[in-house]
Design a protein that fits this description.
This protein is mainly α. It is 43% helix and 10% strand. It has 14 helices and 8 strands.
């Protein structure tokens, strides 16, 4: 399976958030600013601070997160909303008031998964896909990033301060202020509600592996379609092991246990009207794609 982050043309990113974790309503605010403006300077003009109601650095952070999460994109220097942004926050969007768990899950996917948008969040991808441990310290994550950079290209130099800041913001993105003594800001991080990361009794951070009851079926299907298109677009079948364990796969990015993942995959035949079918023949578990299914179609299933 190919991996975007290991592509020779991929350039790692460890900045842009201005040391602010993603917060509730930021993605919607960015979408609205871009959808209603269409100006190149929507994030940099003198009115941006007033329009967003935050400081200059935080405006830059909002732009970064909205881009990394796939809500907006820059085309020829002008920001515009993506199809995903419209599907979530548009006039007929699925989450016009940015209050659904699904929006948080899809933001996490675009940061930590195989999606092209995650190219702006290297630490997020490496943490969820390269670390072999479910319990780890910030220094262990930092060492994993440094090892990745050394293997990818020794000529890529990133300052220790930049890496340290990025690692700190990674943890702040998923751990609520009540659980973290290092989070200085009192605003609740958007992705903390997903419960993917917590602080264990030993003081180490731990991934929470198991069923994810707040993950909507349509968002799970969306990520499977996205993963399949990027990992194996020329294949009509995809093994259970790949979906569960490959870097950038839904099972790995969402930390789903095997039983929970299998249950979701088995249910796809009904929800997709047979476009995706579960097969378990001679111990070989896989999903069969009988006809193409788009990202937009995935979001529309009930």
């Amino acid at each position: 399976m190919k991996s975007l982050i290991n592509d020779v043309n991929y350039e790692p990113h460890f900045s842009g958030h201005e040391t602010f974790p993603l917060r509730h309503m930021w993605l919607k605010k960015a979408y609205e600013a871009v959808a209603h403006s269409g100006k190149k300077s929507v994030f940099t003009n003198e009115d941006a601070i007033i329009d967003f109601g935050v400081g200059k650095n935080m405006v830059a952070s909002i732009r970064h997160w909205a881009t990394a999460c796939g809500i907006i994109e820059s085309v020829n220097g002008t920001y515009r909303s993506t199809d995903l942004g419209e599907n979530l926050f548009g006039n007929n969007g699925l989450d016009q008031y940015s209050e659904q768990y699904g929006t948080s899950w899809i933001a996490h996917w675009n940061l930590a998964g195989r999606s092209k948008f995650g190219a702006r969040a290297t630490t997020w991808f490496l943490a969820f896909n390269q670390l072999g441990e479910y319990s780890f310290s910030p220094s262990q994550l930092l060492s994993s990033i440094e090892e990745y950079l050394e293997k990818k290209s020794p000529r890529i130099k990133v300052s220790p301060n930049t890496l340290n800041r990025d690692v700190n913001i990674f943890f702040s993105t998923y751990v609520s202020k009540q659980s973290s003594t290092s989070l200085e800001d009192n605003a609740e991080p958007m992705l903390a509600e997903l419960g993917l990361l917590q602080i264990g009794a030993n003081g180490l951070y731990e991934f929470s592996r198991g069923p994810k009851p707040t993950l909507p079926d349509n968002i799970f299907l969306y990520t499977l379609v996205d993963y399949w298109a990027n990992a194996a677009s020329n294949q009509s079948t995809l093994s259970f092991e790949s979906i569960a364990y490959d870097p950038g796969s839904p099972g790995r990015v969402f930390k789903l246990d095997e039983d929970s993942l299998a249950e979701r995959l088995i249910g796809l035949e009904k929800s997709t009207n047979g476009c995706y079918q579960w097969s378990d023949t001679a111990g070989q578990k896989q999903i069969i794609c009988t006809s193409e299914f788009s990202l937009n179609q995935a979001l529309e299933i009930e």
